[in-house]
Sequence to fold (184 residues):
Amino acid sequence: MNAASSYTGVAIALHWLVALTILCAFPLGVYMHELPLSPNKLQLYSYHKWIGISALLLVALRLAWRLGHRPPPLLSGMPRWQEIAAQAIHHSLYLLMLAVPLSGWLMSSAMGFSVVWFGVIPLPDLIGKDKMLGELLKEVHATLNFTMLALILIHAAAAIKHHLFERDGTLARMLPFIRQDSTQ
Ligand code: HEM
Ligand code: HEM
Fold:
């Protein structure tokens, strides 16, 4: 891997921190959604919202960083269709990483539940209380989530395929401690 083809430590750290928050919020969302109403369910809803808002903040940081630091070009030797697919998935993931937590926050506001981040920082409601809109946003939140899950699975499978079969540096340049140099 040469200097022009690697991600920096900041880009790698933010990639995996965002991935971690999403991979915690997602199963928690599915699990809590199925529970009967109880104090435990409400507590899990709060944890879910705190993790989700943390994901939103980390994604905002990631995007701000990316605007000032172009990502390294895709590794050469990939067929054109794969390059186009990889770029399309990356851009769609950025969009969904914003849209998913924002739709959750909008839903909570519409349902009349304000978010107090980690029980300490009260966040403003994004819209006024509107139960019908809240129900619609619930559907939007779930649909965006399952679309994002499908893209994440394709994305991760592609990275693993590059590592195991093409044996190129695609995965290594996004892993901490392995890369040797950086530009982003
Ligand atoms: C919540 C889960 C994940 C999300 C939202 C996500 C999102 C992204 C995005 C948006 C990029 C593009 C970075 C840029 O160029 O600005 C990226 C790159 C990358 N991701 Fe993920 N990712 C996730 C999980 C994973 C997993 C599980 C793996 C490995 C198994 C992985 C491996 C990679 C690699 C190798 C790259 C660099 C691709 C390249 O340089 O061509 N990601 N990821
Ligand atoms: C990356 C961030 C997030 C992810 C991955 C995520 C994921 C999910 C998932 C998978 C569900 C279950 C959907 C279903 O099975 O119908 C869910 C439900 C929910 N999410 Fe999120 N979410 C995120 C952020 C947020 C945020 C920021 C909020 C609010 C501030 C929020 C509020 C909710 C609520 C209230 C539900 C339950 C809806 C119901 O009762 O049906 N989420 N979320």
